[in-house]
């Protein structure tokens, strides 16, 4: 393979039956390709020796380490000064080290499907970012305002986290932005925003509170949240699917339950905006099996 001197893009995908478990990436399988610019490794376990090889790839622009069982970002990544894309999705990363802020040429940073609980503070140094994806983590934090100063930021994906609060970003450069609708609002509208996010125009008491993401004078309407909380509190094992309209009013409800009381039904029917209701009643047979069955 060391004769492939013109190779600039390499993908190593380890596809084996699941019962074999994760497979180690073989040694000396990367460093021989000195001209590599795009490297993707997926579904393989990376060890220290592998990262030592990766750091020798001085021409590397794009690094994708997907589902590689890493729990922290290795120091060797700091050596990749020409890196413009770093994708570490589907791993077990809890923290982003400060040295990532030294990768000032980064344009795309993808950390989706990890274990982050806060917005990484070192991102503040990555002012050339065009894409930031922190979806499917456990972030319970306020949207950092410094991201508004990123003039090239075109796409942010913060959805499917525990509880992201505060004010949505207002960058004029944004083309796509995805948030969880609860506990956020906006003071400046940009074209990528979902219409369900509440506006706070800053006049009078109608100001967006950064800590809660709600307007001072009213709470964001969310019928589905009320219904799901009601059912979860009374019947933790029950399932329910719910859909709101852009006004936060429930329009579709799908319930699977066999113990609802008249009080529960009355509560659900009090939401007069429901246009589609599916109620599945589970009835179990009332008999006993004897020893001869």
Give a structural overview.
- The chain contains three helices and 14 strands.
- It has two domains: 9-199, Ribonuclease Inhibitor (Leucine-rich repeat, LRR (right-handed beta-alpha superhelix), Alpha-Beta Horseshoe), CATH 3.80.10.10; 223-281.
- 9% of the residues lie in helices and 19% in strands.
- An eight-stranded parallel β-sheet has the order 1-2-3-4-5-6-7-9, with no helix packed on it.
- The chain is mainly beta and 293 residues long.
- Mean pLDDT is 83; it is low at 202-206.
Helix/sheet category: mainly beta
Average pLDDT metric: 83
Quaternary organisation of the protein chains: single chain
Helix content: under 10%
Rg (C-alpha, Å): 25 Å
The total number of structural domains is 2
Q: Mind summarizing the main beta sheet?
A: 8 strands, parallel
- List unreliable stretches of 5+ residues: 202-206
What is the overall shape?
elongated
Q: How many E strands?
A: 14
In the CATH hierarchy, the architecture of the largest domain is Alpha-Beta Horseshoe
- CATH H-level homologous superfamily name of the largest domain: Ribonuclease Inhibitor
| Beta content | 15-25%
The CA-CA distance between the termini, in Å, is: 65 Å
Q: How are the SSEs ordered, and which strands pair?
A:
Layout: E1 9-13, E2 38-42, H1 48-54, E3 62-66, E4 85-87, E5 108-110, E6 131-133, E7 155-157, E8 166-167, E9 176-178, E10 184-186, E11 198-199, H2 223-234, E12 239-244, E13 250-257, H3 262-269, E14 276-281
Parallel strand pairs: 1-2, 2-3, 3-4, 4-5, 5-6, 6-7, 7-9, 8-10, 10-11, 13-14
Antiparallel strand pairs: 12-13
């Amino acid at each position: 393979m060391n004769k492939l001197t013109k190779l600039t893009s390499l993908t190593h995908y380890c596809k084996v039956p699941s019962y074999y478990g994760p497979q180690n990436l073989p040694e000396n399988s990367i460093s021989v390709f000195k001209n590599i610019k795009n490297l993707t490794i997926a579904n393989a376990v990376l060890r220290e020796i592998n990262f030592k090889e990766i750091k020798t790839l001085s021409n590397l622009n794009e690094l994708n380490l997907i589902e590689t069982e890493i729990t922290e970002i290795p120091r060797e990544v700091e050596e990749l000064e020409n890196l413009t894309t770093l994708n570490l999705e589907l791993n077990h990363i809890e923290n982003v080290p400060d040295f990532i802020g030294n990768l000032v040429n980064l344009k795309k940073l993808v950390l989706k499907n990890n274990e982050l609980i806060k917005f990484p503070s070192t991102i503040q140094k990555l002012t050339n970012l065009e894409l930031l994806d922190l979806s499917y983590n456990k972030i319970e934090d306020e949207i950092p305002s410094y991201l508004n100063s990123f003039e090239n930021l075109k796409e942010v994906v913060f959805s499917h986290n525990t509880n992201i609060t505060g004010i949505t970003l207002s960058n004029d450069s944004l083309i796509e932005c995805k948030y969880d609708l609860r506990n956020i609002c906006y003071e400046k509208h940009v074209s990528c925003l979902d219409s369900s996010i509440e506006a706070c125009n800053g006049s009078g008491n109608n100001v967006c509170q950064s800590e809660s993401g709600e307007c001072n004078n009213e709470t964001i309407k969310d019928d589905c949240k009320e219904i799901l909380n009601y059912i979860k509190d009374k019947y933790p094992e029950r399932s329910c699917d719910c859909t709101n309209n852009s006004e936060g009013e429930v329009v579709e409800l799908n319930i699977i339950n066999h113990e609802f009381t008249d009080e529960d039904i009355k509560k659900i029917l009090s939401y007069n905006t429901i246009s589609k209701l599916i109620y599945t009643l589970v009835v179990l047979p009332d008999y006993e099996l004897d020893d001869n069955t």
